[in-house]
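does this look right to u?? uridine-5'-diphosphate-xylopyranose version
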Amino acid sequence: MNVCIVGTGYVGLVSAACFAEMGNDVVCVDVNPDVVSTLQAGKVHIYEPGLEDMVRRNYAEGRLIFTTSLAEGMERASFVFITVGTPSRPDGSCDLCYVEQVAREIGQNMHKPVIVVDKSTVPVGTADRVRAIIRQELDKRGVNHDFDVVSNPEFLKEGDAVSDFMKPDRVVVGTDNEKSAEYLKTLYAPFARSREKLIVMGVRSAEMTKYAANCMLATKISFINEIANICERVGADVRDVRIGIGSDHRIGYHFIYPGVGYGGSCFPKDVRALINTAHEFSFRPELLEAVDTVNNRQKKRMAERIAEYFAQQGGVSGKTLAVWGLAFKANTDDTREAAALAMIEMLTAQGMRIRAFDPVAGEKVREQLAHNPLVEIVDGQYEAVQGAQALLVVTEWNQFRTPDFERVKSLLTAPILFDGRNLYPPSMMAELGFAYFCVGRPDPA
Ligand code: UDX
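got this back:
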């Protein structure tokens, strides 16, 4: 089948490569000529395991084409996927300017029947808005082509995006048009092999499903972080509590790891966007508001404990903290809404120096934080620790899981470790002689 994908971010490029992998002819359109020429040179501008190989192979075999021209992209396409960014406005609402611009251009370039697929995460009602914009553009041109606007939200995790696309838990298709549903079923058949995995529903329900899924997952994380905060105060260990509650199959063990709060491009933005939508409809979503509040607090919790610890030693000003991990989670270079950045901002505002290392996101953060003279991004995890007063682990990269603790101890001025991801057994850390602070356990005496 012929597919056009507009926007080559995480979602667009992964979708394009995976559709091409199944033998479809895919044209990727991006307004940024630098991105297009990078992709044409066989390089991928984002870090996503497995993606570069797949892009390169399908490009070489001619199933994947990159261009800045939507007209070229739509020439033969039966599907046009909208996968452009939907950034947050300062009030938390979703900025649809890129989606609307693409809708206008689709209307200007349509010359045959096509199914337009909204894959960007957009507020409920956007498919109707996209439909109206396209219709308006067709009317301006005085032409009438048969088209449908379908909602097909993505559920890709960064770092696992390729395998999530290839083996999805489900594919949600929102349309009231049976023909569109059949076309999308055919396109997705190689991925959603069992029929039950392809769930067809109304357009607005599909749009809402995406927000409901992300808000549910964000709620699980804020819930366990709230429990962790109480554990710290009452002398319980949240790691045991997680196992204790997870054994109830109605709860389950997954996605209830306490930590530094959720970050990334989806959860924070989507929770705020749904809160905003609810407000627009005169409804106060108190639970979601609390999920967001708890998360904002959690992102700074470890920094607060560091400040409390050093308060007895004249404060953090002039002290140096080694930071392991800057990306919002492991296996990605994404630092959007990353807890590490929130903590660094808070501690440097109090005069603390930071020596940080991340295996992938370091270079990006070096540029982002170039204005802050208290932050140094270094190229090795042990180099970060050299001469620091304490170590803070923020991202759960594998290489931080079993480090050479003796070496860490000898490089730090004192063996103090703050662990935002509960990577190490507290008893082992005590034996090694560390003052070890982790999430959801009382501070060591
Ligand atoms: C998420 C959704 O999982 C995906 O389905 C959606 O399409 C996009 O948003 P992603 O943002 O890539 O994916 O990351 P995910 O692995 O879900 O983690 C989100 C955040 O929650 C990270 O900051 C992670 O560290 C945190 N998290 C996750 C926890 O703190 N505890 C957990 O138990 C799980």
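Residues 154-158, 214, 217, 221, 255-257, 259, 262-264, 266-267, 328-329 surround uridine-5'-diphosphate-xylopyranose (CB under 6 Å). idk if thats expected tbh
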